[in-house]
Amino acid sequence: MKTEECVLYEERDGIAVITLSRPDVLNAINVAMLQRIGRLLDAVREREAVRAVILTGAGIAFSAGADIGYLRSATPTEVRDFAHLAVRITGMIEHLGKPVVAALNGLTFGGGLELAESCMIRVASNTAKLGHPEVRIGAVAGFGGTTRLARLVGKGRAAEMLLRGRAIDADEALRIGLVQSVSEPGSLMEDAEAFVREVLSQSPHAVRLTWEALHRGLNMTLEESAALGADFFGLVAATEDFRIGTTAFVEKTRPVWTGK
Question: Does 224 participate in catalysis according to the annotation?
Answer without folding.
Answer: no
